[in-house]
């Protein structure tokens, strides 16, 4: 039987016996992941490189770019990467665990993790796979999980100390000192000064936000402009608690607001020495990741009293000489408004015996007017806008005194005594407005958004009020930087560029990126602009001329790594500057024939 079988099925030679060889797995497909990450980095970085986008455009790119890229990387990894399913799931798990642990343990706000950490983690994910192509896959797979976890967890050791006007974050070690820590460490070095008495407003004073008319215009002053050879001499400098408002100056009294730990403080310093005269504290603290902690508004001096609005809505009327409380109100309770994302920023305005603030409350309580002397419940409420970081603005249009209030709805003009709506200019937008309206004359004004600036003509006749758009210009897109007007031109910030725009047609005549997202003040008698750059903070003098940007001189005001958004002040022959960490005073030299605004 065996012989028969062997005859039917002869044995095959050994060379013909087939051997089993496992098929090698294809290498991971990396190009889709690389494409997604490169596209994300372009969306995040290019607007800043071009310098043509507004602050909010950059924010949208920096926020939504990484979110969209995360979705793209997930689709690539799950469906097109060609790695084993077990490794795909382990990679996603490492990403999710790292993200969750970092969100729970880090000092970063969730939104900041998206903007600053997420792009780095996604880039590390793809970069690891690219640079380890020579390693066996098991090593690359384990290494990838380690890279994802460690990159995420690195952000538990880092703190975000705010952003500048170009959305660049200041990243420091989590355990390093904060600006408040440095303030409290140096607080004992600040001297005390006696209380002032009989404070009355004089022509050299600066009674509140951007001056008497809130237009950033200083008259009656002529200073030497040869700052490169003879910079202003420092009179004093010291640490202050965080805050983003400016100064009011009356005589030797210098008023501002600060955050001092759990206390929100209205502070009076001696303008000549920097010593502390008095302080009023409220149990309130406001903090957010963009600017950091601290109140946003500038105090207002009027008839011996000081009006100050805190970031959480505490409106104080204080005796300007002593800091004693005259009356106080909570504008959140009075209006039903929510505390805004970046805090209340409305610097109080006093007109016709009424102190006005923008609260953003619903149901006709956007703007509140209080009896300036007695306080109490609002004397009137008006308006329907709920989003604004602008302040009430005084104006006289058509021969009628009025208060202009800018919100996301547009511009509303109110009677300062009664709160009656005189007229409206509807210009809705989805984002908050920050800058002030700019009054040009008895009939025209400029209104800005982060996208453009418009010139509006206001007509008042027997038929009532009417508004008409004269021109719209995309050459002036201020984020939070107010402009000044001189000889037919507007000078201000277009995102992080400083520009000159003609009032006639809105056309730009020159542009420079020398000052970042700074602030500007006009020395009107000389036709000179005092420009304060954002970071590093320098004070520069620029000729107010439409022909070209001609800088006359400059000097450093603060350290290179400190951003400065607060408006500068010139009063009594001195320049006062502050930011979220320091305040300083510089003596200005009077103009002589040799140094006249040349």
Write a brief caption for the model.
With 598 residues, the protein is α+β, with helices and mostly antiparallel strands.
Going by CATH, what is the homologous superfamily of the largest domain?
A: YVTN repeat-like/Quinoprotein amine dehydrogenase
Average pLDDT rating: 92
Q: How far is the N terminus from the C terminus?
A: 122 Å
Rg (CA only): 30 Å
H/I helix tally:
8
Number of individual domains: 2
CATH architecture of the largest domain: 7 Propeller
Largest sheet: 5 strands, mixed
Strand order of the largest sheet: 3-31-32-33-34
The helix content, as a percent range, equals 10-25%
CATH C-level name of the largest domain: Mainly Beta
Spans of at least 5 consecutive residues whose pLDDT stays below 50 are: 1-8
Query: What's the CATH topology label of the largest domain?
Result: Methylamine Dehydrogenase, Chain H
Cα shape: globular
């Amino acid at each position: 039987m065996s012989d028969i079988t062997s005859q039917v099925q002869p044995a095959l030679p050994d060379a013909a016996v087939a051997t089993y060889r496992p098929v090698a797995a294809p290498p991971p497909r990396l190009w889709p992941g690389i494409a997604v990450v490169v596209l994300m980095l372009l969306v995040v970085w290019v607007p800043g490189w071009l310098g043509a986008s507004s602050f909010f455009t950059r924010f949208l790119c920096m926020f939504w770019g990484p979110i969209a890229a995360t979705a793209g990387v997930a689709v690539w990894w799950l469906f097109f990467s060609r790695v084993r399913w077990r490794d795909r799931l382990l990679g996603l798990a490492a990403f999710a665990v790292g993200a969750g642990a970092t969100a729970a343990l880090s000092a970063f706000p969730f939104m900041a993790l998206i903007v600053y950490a997420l792009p780095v983690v996604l880039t590390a994910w793809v970069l690891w796979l690219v640079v380890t192509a020579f390693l066996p896959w098991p090593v690359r797979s384990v290494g990838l999980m380690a890279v994802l976890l460690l990159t995420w967890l690195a952000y538990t050791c880092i703190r975000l100390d705010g952003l500048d006007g170009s959305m660049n974050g200041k990243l420091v070690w989590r355990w390093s000192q904060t600006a408040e820590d440095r303030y409290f460490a140096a607080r004992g070095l600040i001297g005390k000064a006696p209380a002032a008495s009989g404070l009355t407003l004089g022509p050299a004073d600066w009674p509140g936000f951007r001056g008497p008319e809130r237009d950033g215009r200083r008259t009656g002053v002529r200073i030497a402009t040869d700052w490169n050879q003879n910079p202003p001499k420092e009179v004093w400098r010291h640490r202050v608690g965080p805050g983003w408002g400016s100064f009011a100056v009356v005589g030797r009294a210098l008023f501002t607001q600060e955050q001092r730990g759990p206390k929100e403080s209205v502070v009076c310093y001696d303008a000549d020495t920097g010593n502390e005269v008095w302080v009023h504290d409220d149990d309130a603290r406001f903090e957010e990741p963009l600017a950091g902690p601290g109140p946003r508004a500038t105090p207002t001096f009027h008839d011996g009293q000081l009006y100050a609005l805190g970031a959480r809505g505490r409106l104080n009327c204080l005796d300007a000489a002593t800091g004693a409380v005259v009356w106080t109100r909570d504008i959140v309770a009075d209006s039903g408004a929510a505390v805004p994302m970046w805090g209340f920023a409305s610097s109080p305005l006093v007109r016709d015996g009424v102190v006005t603030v923008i609260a953003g409350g619903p149901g006709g309580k956007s703007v509140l007017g209080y009896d300036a002397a007695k306080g109490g419940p609002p004397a009137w409420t008006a308006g329907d806008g709920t989003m604004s970081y602008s302040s009430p603005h005084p104006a006289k249009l058509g021969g009628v005194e009025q208060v202009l209030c800018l919100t996301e709805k547009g511009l509303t003009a109110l009677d300062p005594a009664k709160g009656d709506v005189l007229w409206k200019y509807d210009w809705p937008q989805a984002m908050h407005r920050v800058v002030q309206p700019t009054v040009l004359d008895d009939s025209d004004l400029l209104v800005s958004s982060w996208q453009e600036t418009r010139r509006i003509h206001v007509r008042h006749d027997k038929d009532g009020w009417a508004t008409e758009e004269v021109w719209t210009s995309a050459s002036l897109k201020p984020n939070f930087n107010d402009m000044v007007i001189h000889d037919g031109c507007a000078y201000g910030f277009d995102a992080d560029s400083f520009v000159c725009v003609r009032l006639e047609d809105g056309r730009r005549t020159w542009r420079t990126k020398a000052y970042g997202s700074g602030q500007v003040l006009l020395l009107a008698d000389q036709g000179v602009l005092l420009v304060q750059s954002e970071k590093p903070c320098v004070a520069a003098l620029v000729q107010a001329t439409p022909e070209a940007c001609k800088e006359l001189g400059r000097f450093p005001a603060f350290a290179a790594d400190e951003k400065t958004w607060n408006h500068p002040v010139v009063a009594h022959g001195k320049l006062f500057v502050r930011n979220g960490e320091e305040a300083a005073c510089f003596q200005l030299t009077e103009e002589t024939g040799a140094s006249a605004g040349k």
